[in-house]
Amino acid sequence: MKLQTYQMKNEKIKKAFLELKREHPDRFQQRLKLSWSNWCFGLETLEESVDRLKEAGIDYIELHGNHYGDDLGYEVNETLEILKKYDMNVSGVCGIFSAENDLSSNIPSKRQAAISYIKRELAFTKAVGGKYLLIVPGAVGRPVAYDDTEFDRSVQTLRGLGNIFHESGVRAAIEPIRAAEVSFTHTVTDAKKYISAVNHEGINHINGDIYHMQSEEAHIGEAILEAGNQLINLHLADSNRGALGEGFMDIDTIIMALYLIGYNQGDKFLTAEPLGPGGDPYPAMNAFPDKEKMNHLVNQTVKYFRERESVLLELF
Fold first, then answer.
1. Residue 95: how many other CB atoms lie within 10 Å
2. What is the tens place of the pLDDT at every residue in 134-189?
3. Which is deepest, 52, 156, 167, 279, by most CB within 10 Å?
4. Is 248 a member of any domain?
């Protein structure tokens, strides 16, 4: 029986993976780096979150970009103390962009708010050793375009921050998000087009998200290959935006594609972000989490991911 189109694409990636494994076994010595985005843990303390992740065997955390004002957000010294206590490292910081700090807004004060927010988060990210700061070109939760020039406003606004990104060494990670949540930049191709338009050496990386990719990409594995070396972080959740292994996301093909682009080398991360179904996960930021549920999400995701990675690495 003839394979379906997506199956043929899967088989092509699997064949390339197995060939690479046979010819260059040295490229499989290091495992993929697993991280966790903690903003969905809401109002629990950072120490509680770090303790949970460390207990589950996670060594990296993507911190909530919660510096919404000069007097808000994680304090650097306290954060460093907690990280040191639990031997936890920071993968990066998840920038949170709403209509109030929108790089593409048609209200100049909102674009200025985005600039100020990014500057605060960039300084914090560097101070705590993060490798990237996630940037969304347009507000999340605003799927309707302002006008025909919002892309251009966003590009111009972010280009003005290129020098401080370059000088800091922190990578700007542009995140494509599904059309149900943002008005533009939905795919890896879109993100590359946006980065090209910004045209600054300090803005050159991509933050993928497999939950959004299942809605917007023709094939997640191929999109990962397209992103290539520009991919610095990849958010993980199953097809139902829950824990890995509790939906029908093809994790095996995703893992194989990542090894094909050398994603297990250097400072590149897989960051779990199982936010649950629905179009607006932001209310979770302002709530106390169900600790039992969070423990399950973390442990199930880690167990399943490492299990599937091990199965694939044992092939041949």
1. 24
2. 999 999 999 999 999 999 999 999 999 999 999 999 999 999 999 999 999 999 99
3. 52
4. yes
What does the alpha-carbon distance between residue 289 and residue 1 come to, in Å, rounded to a whole number?
48
Number of domains in the chain: 1
Query: Which domain does 270 fall in, by range?
Result: 30-313
Instruction: Assess if residue 112 is contained within a domain.
Output: yes
Written as one letter, the residue type at 125 is: T
DSSP secondary structure of 178-235: -TTTBSS--SHHHHHHHHHHH--TT--EEEEEHHHHHHH-S-HHHHHHHHGGGEEEEE
Amino acid occupying residue 270: L
**Per the domain annotation, does 8 fall within a domain?**
no
CA distance 262 to 17: 11
Single out the residue of 238, 234, 240, 249 nearest to residue 300, CA to CA. 238
Q: What is the pLDDT of residues 266-305, one digit of tens each?
A: 999 999 999 866 556 677 777 788 899 999 999 999 999 9
**How many whole angstroms separate alpha carbon 55 and alpha carbon 243?**
17
Is residue 232 one of the residues assigned to a domain?
yes
On whether the CB atoms of residues 230 and 205 are closer than 8 A, the answer is yes
CATH number at residue 205: 3.20.20.150
Give the whole-number percent of the chain exceeding pLDDT 70.
Answer: 97
Which is nearest to 120 in space by CA: 147, 93, 80, 153? 93
What are 16's two structure tokens? Answer: 């390339």
Place of tokens 């199956």: 7
Neighbours of 219 (CB within 10 A): 21
Contacts with 295 (C-beta within 8 Å, 6 or more apart), sequence order:
52
Q: What is the pTM of this model?
A: 0.96
